[in-house]
Amino acid sequence: MMALANAGPAWRLGDLLGGLVDLEPRRPPLEDRRISSLTLDSRTLAPGALFMARQGSRVHGLAFAEEVKRCGATAILAEIGESWSRTDIEYLNDRLGLPVIPVDGLGDRLSAIADRFHGVPSARLEVLGVAGAPGKATLGHLLAQALDTEQASALVGRLGIGFPDDLHAWPEAEQDPLRLQWTLDDLAGRGAKSVILELRSDPATRSRVAAVRFSHLVLANVTGGDPSALTAVVRDLALLPDSGRVVSSLDDPDSGAILAALPPTVSATVHSARPDARKPARCDFLLRATAIETLPLGLRLNLECVGEDDIEQASVDVGLIGRSSASNLLAVLAVLRSRGASLERAARVLSRLRGAPGRMECFGGEGAPLVVVDSARTPEAVERALTDLRLHARRRLFCVLGCGGREDVGRRPRLGAIAERLCDGLILTDDNPRGEPGEAIIADILAGVAAPEAVRVERQRGLAIRLAIALAGTGDAVLVAGKGHETLQDMGDLKVHFSDRAQVVEALREWQEGHH
């Protein structure tokens, strides 16, 4: 991770930390020291940096104090903890010859420090957080596309950082409060007016985004009755400021608990795929689908928006497949309606949306097999993807899948059983083996298959994709499951560039050449 500098003049340490960190009187005073960048990583430290020394999973950042001094840091903020007490830190300050400032709960203050350093970027942006169960990445991408029709809208999440048509990877190691505020500032500087920010479900989310000002919290799909998921969602509700808005699904079994947990100053817009859904008193609008029709390459939605005194109606065809996409589409509608768009105008925006990269993303289908690339890896996700794909009037359904190494070992037989039951032809291949023997992974999947002799095994993933598409004809469908938008295949010590999406495009080209 690079050192996170702003483009303007350096900050006085006293101005940067005033009200956030107590600078005890020292000789010489610390307040006038100049800070030109922030960093958590000593390897990226530049002269003039303020180094944030936190307790890591293995070592405390103060283990690198000597290196930080040699690299020209202005000062160190040091997290007090079991491995470094206040007394230890004060002793290091006296010995090091570089200000080392002890801070209780440093991790909870990083977001506010970085927010101030970068000029309060979320005050210059409309920031919409996407939280909840799996499905956040897809919903976030659809929202970014929808808002981009009226103002430049960017995305920060699992699919990447940037604008919908220009996303770049967001490494796991860089998902910290400093990097996030730097990213928001950078996107604002590149012209973004709104940002869709995907919120992870781990407890550290609150501290990571503590100083971000959200306009909306959009809950993806359903919690499925999982108490830990509900706890995470309720925790995230506290991120909304006064006048914020939550968008959630009435089809969530915990929707009542979510609405009950809303702060009184937060407004709510809800949606449902049930035509008989009723608007709760706590909500401003209800978006509901009165009918959902599957088309060969999309969905047709009949829609109603129920407000305080009236009902708006509209109908729209959308180029996304799968009835499970309806919840995401309704969530996008709910956001647009809550921001003042009429239902008719919001429906027009919906008609122009494209699938998220590697999330039930369609290729071919016009005089060729329909090939869908999806990130589904779990038995539940694969079942949902195959069931959705079967609804789109296909003749035969083929499936290419594998399992990642060192994960989901106990679920592999069930994955095989589900895929065998729901498709007409199953091809097993490598996913990300991560050093685990690929043949052992495939043997685990085959253990759940009733007729293993009917399953084709092709360990080379590119060849497996080509085999499935070669077997398919016009009117057939192929699901390539597992890697989605990923562009690397992890084989343990060996990491190779590999894209399911690129392989599908090439295999379809070959199919079309062979059928002309």
User: How many helix segments?
Assistant: 16
- Assign the CATH architecture of the largest domain: 3-Layer(aba) Sandwich
Q: Enumerate the strands of the largest sheet in spatial order, edge to edge or round the barrel.
A: 11-10-9-12-8-13-14-15-16-17-18
Q: What form results from the Cα inertia axes?
A: globular
Number of domains: 3
Care to count the β-strands?
26
Range of strand content: 15-25%
**Overall pLDDT score:** 91
Helix percent band: 25-40%
Distance between the termini: 50 Å
CATH class descriptor name of the largest domain: Alpha Beta
Task: Find the structural class using helix and strand composition.
Answer: alpha/beta
Please name the CATH topology of the largest domain. Answer: UDP-N-acetylmuramoyl-L-alanine:D-glutamate ligase
Q: How does this model look, in words?
A:
The chain has 516 residues and is α/β, with parallel strands linked by helices. It has 3 domains: 4-108, 3-Layer(aba) Sandwich (Udp-n-acetylmuramoylalanyl-d-glutamate--2,6- Diaminopimelate Ligase, Chain: A, domain 1), CATH 3.40.1390.10; 118-351, UDP-N-acetylmuramoyl-L-alanine:D-glutamate ligase; 361-514, Mur ligase, C-terminal domain (Protein-Tyrosine Phosphatase, Chain A), CATH 3.90.190.20. It has 16 helices and 26 strands. The strands form 5 sheets. Strands 11-10-9-12-8-13-14-15-16-17-18 form an 11-stranded mixed β-sheet, with helices on both faces. Strands 19-20-24-21-22-23 form a 6-stranded mixed β-sheet, sandwiched between helices. Helix 5 packs across helix 10 and helix 10 packs across helix 11 (343-351). The radius of gyration is 26 Å and the shape is globular. The chain starts with a strand and ends with a helix. The mean pLDDT is 91.
